[in-house]
Amino acid sequence: MAQGYLGFDNDTEMEVIGQEYFDHLASRSFFQEFEKDDDENIISCQMHDIIHDFAQFLTKNEYFTVEINEGSEELVINTSNEKARHSMLTLYGGATFPISICSIKSLRSLLIDRTFPMYSLPDDVLPNLFGKLTSLRALKISEKYRRLNLIIAFPAIPKEVKKLIHLKYLNLSDQDVEKLPETLCELYNLQTLDISWCRKLKELPEGMGKLINLRHLINDGTYSLSYMPKGIEKLTCLRTLSKFVSSSDGSKACSTLACLKDLKHLRGRLEITGLGNVTNVSEVKRMQILSSKKSLFDLTLMFDKDGEGERKKDDDELLLDALQPHPNLEKLGVYRYRGSTFHSDWIMSLTGLKELSLTCSGNCLYLSPLGKLPSLESLRIACSRVKKLVTGIESDGAFSSSTSAILFPKLKVLKFSSISEWEEWDYGNTILPCLASLSIKYCRKLRALPDGLLQGAKNLQHLKIYKSDLLGERYRKGTGEDWQKISHIPNIKFNRSYLQGGPLPLH
Q: What pTM was computed for the model?
């Protein structure tokens, strides 16, 4: 997209055209060895050595790659590189940034990878780079092995970024920046801004609404982000918005969820945090901010709240009801929910829902009959005060249980965690034909697993019991009274130790 290789078609989105190009090349073995995420999306691939060598031969005057180690000699730009369009730099250890690269005025792409421990770049590097490489369409400044916490802070993004007037793709992921300059909002051609895993980033520029061509704002892992700026609703071209933060402070913030209404093209995944700050639930219901977004397949709702103020539990119930998504939704996560009932008509209408994760506060006593969701493959529940679960999943007798039913017809993964008051699992004659993995963690009062489950779940391959003392005593290998009831399961993990074929677990 950034290089303009996808052309322009009023009837087809650029992202769709790009996917078609990629699929065509992959079908002809131009790409191979694909790595996929949990949703089977390809996230990386490789080229065969011969294909790569041939591509290098054809483009030998258009691009160059450089790897620089600590103590390496200064990069010398030769005549073959003077008109290069694309370059990738990899800086190892304490390698010095080759400032001479700024003399290649023709560069359209610059990808910079920094790896392993290194000091921050000198303060003059980025201003020089931004001021001289003004033809750039794509710029990536990232750090490999960031999760090892070995790299010292990256300096602030300088105001000179505004000089990159042709820039369409900017990747600043995994940086330690706390603030982005307002001048970033003068990059009117910008289509993609990736600030994912900038954990210290506290705010976005106030002028974000000027970026009218922005299609992808990737901001996963921006844990310190406290609000969305006013004007975010003007970004009507947005296809990707990873995270929206609802704030209690309306002085600078686009504090209401109504800002999402005009972002009609959002697709894929969206996380909404700060829902505990929402006060005007009737406005959210009237706006129907999510129900029209038919390309949104993965939704996370975080009912967290700024400060320590009290919030009524029925507020969360009403807000959950008002946040009805399009029926196309495939993944739903609801966290820190304070309602006394997790039950809404729209939840039961999600016939294509494959994954559901729910964490509730101590208020929640009743759950919906989730077993009636026909496509559900993965279910995770953490609701501390539920005392009795009926495999459905209903709770505390709030909903009747069928005496014989095939519920969860496609469920493969079932996880319970931190249900501290759970004592009884009423299984009845339910059948879970596809269940392959069962995990129970921090359920200290649960007395037993249902015999019907252990006998009827023919595909059960993995059982994990962790910090659930009564279950531990009951099913302990060798001494537990019901060890034989689980001994047929191939993979049993108890308090992080494998039981079958291994030593007895310690309490």
A: 0.89
